[in-house]
């Protein structure tokens, strides 16, 4: 006997942060318009983030009846798997970035609880916020500390920075990259000194360094990034960030995983993001928002990050599955294919949300079906059976499905044999 499974279209939220692309240039904004989430696009207004989830800062609602998805899940536990907890444990976003986001990190669960208890205004929940970012266009970012030996070279090349250090700290520059874990302690000493420098002194050195680079005829790629940040945030300590952090570009489809306490800043481009259901961000530069240098320098992971790109799993049907290890709140599946393709979605013991970036498809479970177009978002009930949602693609299609993996799914990841039934 075929079952009735809830497939509910959702109305979601757009945030208009200043770093977002404006009007039709914003992928986040155009998706929201095409999907019926907003009535129009203002050509002079930034549309930075399209949010899909139950977080209080951007809650989704069921289009059919206007009920908040969070309220529906809290009162209808049968819509979720046994391992889920009456809400979505993740937050899914589409970002359109034209100006740098803040230099930032996200706390661990333990740190999130401490920050929220101490300062609930600036840390609005007590959760951690690990996140994965998947590029939709060429996407530029800073993420993780460079090799320490390279940082040492750059501190000498951009020698103006040394004016912010004591003689003892200057003497430690050659030790970066030389002593394993001790090298991370040296980096913490130097980085903390620079980021704790009083604003007036910082502005003088930032200006001196940036203007010297501006006067050079032949600029390196790193020079160009420093100058770019200086034009956006003159005098800001974040202008120094590319000297310390890896700069790289993700091509469409490539991803990076940002674990707790990993420093990062997005610079340009469009991406999708999925993270634990949290908005906890510790900022320390390139932002007019609240800055918490003390928390950042104490919590930062100062180790080298040698490979900031994340490689997903490829399932038997060719779709990609992003399963960051150690994270229980979310996995992300890319569903992509030409007209005529058919997918059966795995891990249907979890509820999920499917966000369509382009194309058309019909999702069917049992006797229930919904046709989806660009910008539409579908909540898919957990099936509690072997019956799996089927996606029939009628026009070239790209969508991302986010869900909370069950213990069975997590066990399969640990055994390096992903089950897909």
From TrEMBL:
Active site residues according to the UniProt entry: 283
UniProt cofactor(s): Zn(2+)
Pathway(s): Nucleotide-sugar biosynthesis; GDP-alpha-D-mannose biosynthesis; alpha-D-mannose 1-phosphate from D-fructose 6-phosphate: step 1/2
GO MF annotation, one: mannose-6-phosphate isomerase activity
Cofactor note: Binds 1 zinc ion per subunit.
CDD domains reported for this sequence: cupin_PMI_type_I_N
Swiss-Prot/TrEMBL catalytic activity: D-mannose 6-phosphate = D-fructose 6-phosphate
Name of the molecule in the record: Mannose-6-phosphate isomerase
């Amino acid at each position: 006997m075929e079952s009735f499974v809830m497939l509910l279209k959702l109305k979601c939220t757009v945030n208009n942060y200043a770093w977002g692309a404006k009007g039709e240039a914003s992928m986040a904004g155009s998706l929201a318009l095409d999907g019926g989430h907003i009535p129009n696009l203002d050509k002079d207004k930034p549309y930075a983030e399209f949010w899909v989830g139950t977080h209080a800062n951007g809650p989704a609602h069921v289009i059919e009846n206007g009920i908040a998805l969070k309220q529906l899940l809290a009162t209808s536990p049968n819509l979720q798997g046994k391992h889920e907890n009456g809400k979505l444990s993740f937050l899914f976003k589409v970002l359109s970035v034209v100006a740098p986001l803040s230099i930032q990190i996200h706390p661990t669960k333990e740190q999130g609880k401490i920050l929220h208890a101490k300062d609930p205004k600036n840390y609005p929940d007590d959760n951690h916020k690990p996140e994965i970012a998947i590029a939709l266009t060429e996407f530029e970012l800073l993420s993780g500390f460079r090799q320490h030996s390279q940082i040492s070279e750059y501190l000498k090349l951009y020698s103006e920075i040394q004016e912010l250090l004591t003689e003892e700290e200057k003497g430690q520059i050659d030790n970066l990259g030389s002593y394993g874990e001790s090298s991370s302690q040296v980096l913490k000493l130097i980085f903390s000194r620079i980021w704790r420098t009083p604003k007036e002194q910082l502005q003088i050195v930032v200006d001196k360094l940036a203007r010297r680079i501006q006067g050079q005829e032949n600029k390196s790629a790193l020079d160009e990034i420093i100058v770019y940040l200086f034009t956006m945030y003159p005098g800001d300590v974040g202008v120094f960030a590319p000297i310390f952090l890896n700069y790289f570009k993700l091509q469409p489809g490539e991803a990076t995983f940002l674990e707790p306490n990993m420093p990062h800043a997005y610079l340009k481009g469009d991406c999708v993001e999925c993270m634990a259901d949290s908005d906890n961000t510790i900022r320390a530069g390139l932002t007019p928002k609240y800055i918490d240098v003390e928390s950042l320098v104490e919590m930062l992971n100062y180790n080298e990050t040698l490979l900031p790109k994340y490689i997903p799993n490829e399932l038997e049907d060719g779709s990609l599955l992003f399963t960051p290890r150690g994270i229980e709140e979310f996995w992300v599946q890319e569903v992509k294919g030409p007209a005529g393709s058919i997918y059966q979605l795995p891990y249907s013991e979890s509820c999920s949300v499917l966000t369509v970036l382009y194309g058309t498809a019909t999702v069917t479970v049992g006797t229930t079906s919904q046709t989806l177009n660009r910008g539409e978002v579908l909540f898919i009930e957990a099936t509690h059976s072997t019956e799996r949602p089927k996606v029939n693609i009628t026009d070239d299609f790209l969508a991302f499905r986010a869900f909370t993996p069950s213990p069975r799914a997590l066990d399969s990841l640990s055994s390096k044999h992903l089950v897909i039934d």
